[in-house]
Specification:
It is built from nine helices and 14 strands. The protein is of the alpha/beta class. β3, α4 (101-110) and β4 form a beta-alpha-beta unit. α1 (16-25) crosses α6. The structure holds pyridoxal-5'-phosphate (PLP).
Amino acid sequence: MSPIYNFSAGPAVLPEAVLREVRDELLDWGGSGMSVMEMSHRGKEFVSIAEAAEADLRELLNVPEDYKVLFLQGGASGQFSAIPLNLLGESASADYVVTGSWGKKAVKEAGKYVQARVVAQPAGAFTQIPPREEWDLSADAGYVHVTPNETIEGVEYHDTPDVGDVPLIGDFSSTLLSRPIDVRRWGVIYAGAQKNIGPAGLTIVIVREDLLGRARGTCPSVLNWADQAAADSMLNTPPCFTWYVAGKVFAWLKAQGGLPAMAAINERKAAALYQAIDSSDFYANPVDPVARSWMNVPFTLANPELDGEFLAQAKQAGLLTLKGHRSVGGMRASIYNAMPEAGVQALIDFMADFERRHG
Ligand SMILES: *Cc1c(COP(=O)(O)O)cnc(C)c1O
């Protein structure tokens, strides 16, 4: 049987080695006689799992001492609210650069709590990142929010924008751990786990300590970064099992050579797929080449009537979940860390074969 490759945008593929380890430990973790699912989050077994995961994540991302790393629930969408509630009062304002669907949602949610201003957004479809010179940043903004990788449109920043002394906040949901980043450039980094980190249910927040302690009184405690930091992310029951699996992914990433090694592989995978799309008139990707995502690659067929056939045959060939987001149409291949290069090559080969038969 040929291997199965899952191109889902999220929840998404996990390293097979991690799944096997989880299977082997499922009934009895470390001779404890308990599954991780059954453990008290305050017991010494789970605390050791939690601490090892945090230490590995800090090492992978080179997180400075004066940043807290939180393991929370509520998804990236929960952080859309947590950000204004932790940082600003009601009369304050914040700047949002919108380069895709998730950024739009972040603005809408923040608008419930602060004045959320869109300071840059492409005029038409989301296919580019407005040049930094054109951002209309406000003098009094409490923070600037960007989405480093827009998962639906496949639009990614390949460098960190300079916004001066205003805290820069990034929704890294679909790109965290795909390459090294300079954490120091960011005030807050956050990500739902289910794209490139682990199973659904865990939200990672990395926050500079001087931004703690500013929350409004009405901020829910579970979303309050300072309260959660003081409680080691255990103000209430944390997402224990997901935290454990994410920890296994961190250890796996370290064994692959860390983020520089992953970046080299991810860049290669993306380049090969975009090259296959660009070299054919049968397939197209609309994104400005300098803003193309390494993680999510949307593409369309010249004849959309063939979409259904493409997806059905891809599935037959073991290439799963390639349907594009309903708002964009066409196809989308999500090629996160856990997608092997052989999976991308199998997709490229299938695309060429499909074109030969239908082009
Ligand atoms: C998936 C995604 C979200 C939403 O994440 P949830 O964890 O489901 O709330 C937000 N932002 C980006 C960039 C995403 O890819």
